[in-house]
Known about the structure:
By secondary structure, this protein is an all-alpha fold. Among the domains are: 84-128 and 135-190, no CATH class; 204-362, no CATH class; 550-745, no CATH class. Helices cover 53% and strands 1% of the residues. The chain is built from 29 helices and 2 strands. It has helices at 32-37, 50-54, 84-103, 107-110, 119-124, 140-147, 155-179, 200-210, 215-227, 229-233, 239-251, 254-260, 263-279, 282-288, 294-314, 323-338, 343-362, 385-405, 418-422, 453-468, 480-495, 511-528, 542-561, 573-598, 607-624, 633-658, 667-683, 727-731, 742-745; strands at residues 733-734, 738-739. Strands 1-2 form a two-stranded antiparallel sheet. Helix 22 (511-528) packs antiparallel against helix 23 (542-561). It starts with 31 loop residues before the first helix and ends with a helix. Residues 1-12, 67-82, 105-154, 176-185 and 690-746 have low confidence and may be disordered. Residues 30-63 form the Zn(2)-C6 fungal-type domain. Its main location: nucleus. Residues 1-25, 104-124 are annotated as: Disordered.
Amino acid sequence: MSTDEPQHRSHGDGPEKKRRRVGTARRALSCTECKRRKTKCSSLGMTPCASCVQRGKPEECRWESVSGTGEAVIQPTEQPFALASEVETLKQQLHELYDYVHHGTSSSRGQSYSATSPPDQTSAAYLPQARNHDRASPMSGQVALISATDVDRRLESSVSVLESLVEKEERLMHNAAKTLPNNTSARPTRLPLALDPTTRGEVVLDSVYAILPERVLAMRLTKSYFQGALQLGWHILHKPLFMQEEHDFYALEPNMQRSETDPAWIAVYLMVLALAIHEMDSREVEILFPLYNTEEVSRLSMALHQASVLALEVADCDSIPQIRHLQAALLYVPFLLHFGSGDGDRNKGLRHVVEAINTAQWLNLDQLDLSRVPMHDAAFRKCSPRVAFELCKRLFHMLSFLDGLVWKSPGHWKLAEAATRASATQLPLNLNDEDLDNEDAQELPFTEVTHATIARMGSLFALHTRMYVKDMHHGGLMSYENILKSDAALKTVLDQFPRPLRPIPGKICNWMQITMYSSLNYRFLRLHRPYMARGYVDEEYKLSTECSISSAKNIIECQRLMMECPHLRPNFCKQWILGAALVLTVDLVISIDLSLGEHSRPQINCPVISSKRLYVTHTLEIFRQVFPEDRTPRVTSQCCKIVEGLLTAVEERMHTHSEGLHPKGDLQDFFDGVSAGLVARRNETDNRNQPFEIAPDMSMLEFFINENQERETQDTQDMLGAWDDMFKDILVRDPNSGPIDASRIV
Length: 746
């Protein structure tokens, strides 16, 4: 019923009463604009009225003055003649309709509203937070109008707004039905919108776009990411192309951004923002996001990551292979694998790697040449075939690198057939992004770091792993002949790797270059450690001794460079550092024992011994460094105590020699003594918060297991870390001659 009609009509079958005649001084029932359009005005006496707001012309809303007075008509203060129960019923129906239109819930939800609650309280509970996004919904003007409804609004105004909403929805549904006459999805549904396949995409995108920062802030974060250390070490995105895509995105009108933008690009963009925030200091993030509290700031990067995963879902990457799926998945790797908070994040990261490899094979990137480049992909719309070809090679070889080195066993390798799969696609050219468009650009020497270095070296490293490390599965030992073959092949990889041990002053630390160089040296250490001790007494195995010691020193020197940015050191590097410390301790102990037979007592502290001890001390400095981003501080504390125990035992051994006495036992006895000393230190107090709540086993490195027997770092069989069987049965035991003891060494 229109609010312009009188309130009283006759009941029954009789004719209606005649309308009362109105004099010339009656108040206006419509604004001038509604009157000109011959439409009813939905808000009596309000300026602007709801109809003018809907038309987008609130400034044209005017009300005629009462004839003879010259004064504008104001909202009458008297209440219309209606029962209070009818008014409350209409209010409740208004809220139910608003909730259904804007939140997709059934009318039963509206029954839970309090019938006595004022409209501004009930509706405000479901309104978005006061963050002014340019991507406002088409109904935002009506939402603002409804949420601002005063408790004392006239009944005519409430009914008018209700009718306006109904007419609006009917018109939209009618237009949709005309456009898709045979599509049943255009009909109203009682399914939850987030679960209905026809509406889930829009609902998900609502959340995805809601978390996007404002344009200026987002572009600032993008700039920070491309200037930061994460992008330098883990180069996934072609910077000129991505920056152009970001510019094009914000050049669109806000209401066109969603419809004109690939959801997969939004997924990549959100991960850029997440990694930029992850790399920033928390205090700086709080300044950039003043509306977020400290707890929300700590969860912001993870929330952006979750939004990225949802955007990939909307892009339908499960059924349509896309290049941007590979880019997003590779950006998930440092976020989850390298800097994740536990095994849960690590497992999620591994699943993303598997899915990305499947997509790469679907796109034929494992058998790629220039004629097979997927130029139809949305990611390459603004690329030349040459640039697209190089980017595809980089992406594939980054995945090949991960495939060969992150799995616990060869059975998980997706690219196990190295000769026909992982190496079929040629390595990317050793060029930077800005040189890819230049056909005359000369490829840089392999020893120079470029944007393709990690992809090139990582893939070569993984290829070596597939060819040789499979013989070491489940702790199996390689023959010494195969160790030498593996050593020679690994040296060809190392010879092509740029050395990070001489950084350029003032240049950002390339954390991934350092990490991969440490990993290569750790592989040498794992190859030769079964024969390291034998090299001191047998020239045939001297190569193993020298290679183990030099590799351990390289690891320590690399990780000392990471002390400039310890928050970028992956968790598993702690195992490499400790393993290097144990090797250097073995060398130090044996050198001390050997020096007794070559020098007099005062020469025990010769420069050679002091230099060897200094490297172990450097290890202790690394573990003593405290920084808030340390994700496994318990492991760090344990490693620190172990190195302290090693140094204490070395000092006791040197003191024994200085007294002209012979230390008791062999190397195994030495490490058993270190373990016993650590257990004794634990037993000195009943405090269960001490670093060693279990007795550390120096042969198996079980100090990486907490009191619940849950690993805080990667599995000891992982290709990226840890020893298989440390010193107990391998390093100190000669398979043919029994244990190596101090008397035999001397």
